[in-house]
Amino acid sequence: MEKIKLVVEGKELEVPKGTTLGEVFKELGIKDAVGALLEGELVDLQTPLRRGGKVKPLFRGDEEALPIMRHSLAHVMAQALKELYGPAKVRLGVGPDTEEGFFYDVEVEGRTITEEELKKIEEKMREIVKRDYPIVRKELTREEAKELFKKLGERYKLELIDEIPEGEPVSVYEQGGFVDLCKGPHLPSTGKAGAFKLTAVSGAYWKGDASGPQLTRIYGMAYWDEEKLNERLKFYEEVKRRDHRRLGKELEFFTIENEVGPGLVLWLPRGALYRKVLEDYLREEHLKRGYQLAYTPHVGRAELWKRSGHLEHYKENMFPPMQLDEEEYYVKPMNCPFHITIYKTRPRSYRELPFKLFELGTVYRYELSGVLHGLLRVRGFTQDDAHIVCTPEQVNDVIRETLEFALQVLRDFGFEEFKLYLSTRPEDAIGSDEQWELSQKALEEAVKASGYEYEVDEGGGAFYGPKIDVKVKDAIGRLWQLSTIQFDFNLPERFDMTYVGPDNKLHRPYMIHRALLGSIERFTGILLEHHAGLLPFWLSPTQVAVLPVADRHHDYARRLAELLTAEGFRAEADLSGERLGAKIRKAELTKVPVVLVVGDREQESGTVSVRTKKEGSLGSMSLEELIKYLNELQRSRR
RNA sequence: GCCGGCGUAGCUCAGUCGGUAGAGCGCGGGCUUCGUAAGCCUGAGGUCGCGGGUUCAAGUCCCGCCGCCGGCUCCA
Question: Which nucleotides of strand B come closer than 7 angstroms to any CB of the protein?
Fold first, then answer.
């Protein structure tokens, strides 16, 4: 009998090949293990060992064992469904563990599962957990397995069996009479499961194929203990609380109306004021860095989009054409062809490179109706778009400067944590080796110089060039992709872009697309969620609310608001007849960062009583102190 | 686009078994002049998403469409 060597908790031992870890642990007196890491790979206790190595037993509560437990819960759920709806009526698809729990794709004959039923299913699951069925692994031959699942009417499982590579064992796990095709790993018994909750149902295509059958996906969340589960559930409540669609309504920032069209955003006055501040800032920052501004139309001739290649590669994302004077026109999905046309209005010398053109360009893209989502996924949006045309020699500096610019802008909006992604040459790429090498090197150097964590997505670039993506981490730990810096070797060719070099000859320039915030709409959604609606002082539509205590203080309040407006702040006096408490409540709910209360005391002494949304009451200040304080808030962008 | 859920006043929502539409907030008017998160009274406001059907009668039941929400798929 072949032997294999194991090292368990420092102890070395030899066992016959095919022994299970369950047997090994029993021998060693290791109790209550739910799984193990064998050379770093997650394994269960019931699978015969085929190789030796270092073994780390895992117990309930171990982070590393979560996938085992979640996967087993998926089986428990499948069993619960079979018990509830009848074994012959329930056909199983796949049921893996996920980041937070598990799901199972199922088909229940003659009915659809609704959210209301989740409780019932959950109860049945708890029952099965309580019954503490041992989970037994069996290896079958392909034929045996096929016969078994044919008998069970599990046609999806039959398909899966066919996909198991030759030479790999076909295994099933059985618990309390319920058998499922599965390669594991699984808990020793159902009773070892942790805390869980079924959270949602949705449709999911079998094998992700939209033309194939659609199954019902039932989601569950699972952690070892109730506390952690509740913490995660709370997190989702927090996500809900920060939902920009709710905040956007409350703060009167934007609306999306059926009558106007799905995915088309109307900016309300308060949102428009915020957006004006943001746009002014962007234009300023671009001008400071040598960008030039442009405005381009919303539509262009089909000819243009043909030349750019959009009609060839991007048509399904474009609004359908419109006919005008015998010509077809398309609404623009991107700004590049216009910017390139601007570049080409006259011959360009190497002396004016890098040529950097910036536009807050509004583009329209056809998005499937099902993916539209508040401001985060829309059909019409404004990009903070720029195209940089430069010589090969300038590529390094340009990229480094652009990445620094992007990060500085994101920091100004209150983001502090970034993760960079470098995507390199894919299989079917255009462009020369030289172009790819030069570009990728520039991107990599810039990413390294930034000092932030980065990942390389080998082969993940577009066919026309490599890129850097910047993701930000928001206040509750979610990652959002914002900035993109993308080389394009395609359009300079298609549009025959050139510049005259020092040698008096024509050369092909490098071109880079880049957006810092991406889309103003999407960015606003993310920003609102990041700050939970409480925008930094410099971005708030109303920065200061002046609240008179009684009617006799109205004049003083009005004069104060005028004074602050003259100082460049966005200030409003609340002259409604409400009581102070109600006015404060209103200011709080609309998330005005600074509130000034003025009554007899303040009016007499020419002061204000300051209350901020973030820090509460700051006591009274003279007007000089107040303006100094506000200027500091403005300057620090806090 | 697909699956499931949902659509009632500006907003959040209630509306039983099919019997003719309601609350709170907000908005208008009046009173109150008030010191750090809701003062009191009063009024206006609805083609119950749209269209069709069943019925003596439809917010309620059925069908189609539109939109929203959660996913799936898509995102050169």
Answer: 1-5, 11-12, 31-39, 66-76
Same domain for A511 and A363: yes
What are the tens digits of pLDDT across the range A489-535?
Answer: 999 999 999 999 999 999 999 999 999 999 999 999 999 999 999 99
Contact A530, A415 (CB under 8 A): yes
Closest nucleotide to A488: CA versus each C1': B76
User: Do A580 and A477 sit in the same domain of this protein?
Assistant: no
Q: Is A338 exposed, middle or buried (0-12, 13-18, 19+ CB in 10 A)?
A: buried
Same-domain status, A36 and A160: no
Assigned domain for A495 exists = yes
Q: Could you read off the pLDDT of A220-235 as tens digits, one per residue? A: 889 998 888 888 888 8
Residue A324 has which token pair?
């005008």
Tokens of A226: 């109730």
A365 is catalytic: yes
pTM: 0.87
CA dist A463 to A309, A423, A515, Å? 13, 11, 19
Catalytic, out of A467, A553, A583, A591: A467
Angstrom distance (rounded) from CA A638 to CA A632: 9
Show which of A495, A529, A563 is a domain's final residue. Answer: A529
* ipTM field: 0.90
What does the pLDDT look like over A312-331, one tens digit per residue? 889 889 998 998 888 999 99
Structural domains counted in chain A: 4
Whether A390 is a known active-site residue: answer: no
Please name the nucleotide lying closest to A589, CA to C1': B37
Residues 6+ apart with CB under 8 A from A256: A262, A263, A264, A265, A266, A374, A378
Q: Is A603 a catalytic residue?
A: no
- The pLDDT tens digits for A563-585 are 999 999 999 999 988 999 999 99
**Among this protein's residues, is A467 annotated catalytic?**
yes
Catalytic residue among A46, A79, A175, A383: A383
A583 CA from B21 C1′ (Å) = 34
Q: Are A429 and A525 in the same domain?
A: yes
Host domain of residue A34: 3-59
